Amino acid sequence: MRWDIFCQIVDNYGDAGVCWRLARSLASIHGQEVRIFCDDLPTLNLLASGVDPAIKQKIDMQPWDASHSNARHPVQTPDVVIEAFGCELPERYLAGLFIASIKPIIINLEYLSAEPWITEFHGKASPQSHGIPKYFFFPGFQEEVGGLLLDPIPAEGHLTDNEIPKDLKVAWSQLRPGAKRISIFCYPGAPLKKWLKDLGSLGEEVDILLAHGHAEQLNLYGEQPVSLPKNLQLISMPFVSQDEYDWVLSQCDFNIVRGEDSFVRAQLAGKPFIWHIYPQEDRAHEVKLAAFLDLYLEEASQELRLATIAAMTWAMPSEWFGKLGVWDAHAKRWRTHLLEKQADGGLPARLIRFVA
């Protein structure tokens, strides 16, 4: 089938990351014909850099305006149109769909959630005055909803020198043998300076891998630079592609992630992590986080539940870091659980079956 995916980037990487991973899975694994129309094509291209050219050339990546600027309607009417995260289709593109002899199906691809209510709304029709069928599709962890984006599934195990991506060789050369590794990719509101100081007080050697731009964004070296003990080392990473970032998560002992795509990848890495969920004014993010933790910690001991909830709500490391070994074992079991629950192919496969 022919698929058009519309992606408007709200957060710098998350929306683009999900759309690219979905397009890649549909095209390279399921043999679908995919176009992406994105309002920030340079960011999308950065995330897709380093991917096997044979995979990338299967996906037609276009600027947003290309969906309607060259003709009154799409050159080829798609079978499926995806509005990623509820973005509105360009009016002129939609007008082209009105006059098409065979109407496509429009999918409103919602944000990932573990909240129970999504099971009632997943797959429901959203009647439109223009008559083109439109449906809500909710990605999620439960079997009866839209599933997760899994591909490519990261391999477990330790790296060899030959496996280090070339963009990361400089950063990796600074790692100290025997030191724990923590990657950090979070929003500016995180209490990171205080968090790092507390981590340093534990006396353990830890190498901190900061996502591109984080040292400046979090003002770690600004007018009042953070002063850390020698057992902590801060290492700034360059901007890396989506695949390279997945690899970083798999090689760290603990990860701090943000956004929907990184959130899922941290789980597939099978390591303990903090999900710095995007804060919302109505505090809806707290409900969303609690719903995920209910699932994630369903089989955990009370001790681990308390430690994980404390970490996820930015309690200082001294309150929970000692439980990292138990948490690591739990994270590996959770990874196995996810792969079993998504053995049907997850989000792209469920989308294809739903449309069919």
Automatic annotation (TrEMBL):
Entry keyword Kinase: no
Swiss-Prot/TrEMBL catalytic activity: dTDP-beta-L-rhamnose + L-arginyl-[protein] = N(omega)-(alpha-L-rhamnosyl)-L-arginyl-[protein] + dTDP + H(+)
Record key words, sorted: Glycosyltransferase, Transferase
Recorded family membership: Belongs to the glycosyltransferase 104 family.
Summary of the function given for this chain in its UniProt record: Protein-arginine rhamnosyltransferase that catalyzes the transfer of a single rhamnose to elongation factor P (EF-P) on 'Lys-32', a modification required for EF-P-dependent rescue of polyproline stalled ribosomes.
Record-given protein name: Protein-arginine rhamnosyltransferase
The species this protein was found in: Polynucleobacter yangtzensis
